[in-house]
Amino acid sequence: MLVDLPTSEAEEVSPQQAWQMLKERRGVKLVDVRTAPEWLYVGLPDIGATAGTLLQISWHIFPDMRENVAFADDLKRAAAPDDVLLFLCRSGGRSLTAVRAAKEAGFKQAYSIRGGFEGPVDDHGHRGSVEGWKCAHLAWRQQ
Questions:
Q1: Are 14 and 37 in contact (CB under 8 A)?
Q2: Which terminal Cβ of the chain has fewer Cβ within 10 Å, N or C?
Q3: Cα(61)–Cα(112) distance, rounded to whole angstroms?
Q4: Model-level pTM?
Q5: Rounded to the nearest 5°, which phi and psi values hold at 19?
Q6: 130 lies in some domain
Q7: Which pLDDT band holds residue 121 (cuts at 50, 70, 90)?
Q8: Domain presence at residue 81
């Protein structure tokens, strides 16, 4: 049974909804908008057991963290306007901004993964235990 797609007005899905969409729907793309050092040192979602595709397209360019002005063009080269796109960043801010940019660029089914890869900091100043991909115990790996 396929998971229902969120309405086109929705901007966010939970990590669990994202995982189900990746598992059950062919052609879903997970767009990780973090920076290259984040991919390298923090890790990547491991979606090898799903029908989805992982795209790494930074929203900001490291080290000066300027906005990637080629973001929409990079996305258009990697995805079709009818693709379901799930955006992921560290804690949900950049991915939500990227969703809005994707929709402006003509992608109708674009959603941010709530809480991002690591989620917000907890009471001890650590990430990964409050919300997000890691907190949901979804597959991930170090490069």
A1: no
A2: N
A3: 19
A4: 0.93
A5: -60, -45
A6: yes
A7: very high
A8: yes
Question: DSSP 3-state assignment of 58?
Answer: coil
Cβ atoms 21, 53 nearer than 8 A: no
Instruction: Provide the percentage of residues in the chain whose pLDDT is more than 90.
Output: 92
Rg (CA), the chain: 14
Q: Cα(43)–Cα(46) distance, rounded to whole angstroms?
A: 9
What's the confidence (pLDDT) of residue 143? Answer: 83
With residues binned 3-state (H G I as helix, E B as strand, rest as coil), the percentages for the chain, rounded to 5, are: 25, 20, 55
Structure tokens at 76: 């258009």
Domain membership flag for residue 74:
yes
* Total domain count, the chain: 1
For 89, the 3-state DSSP assignment is coil
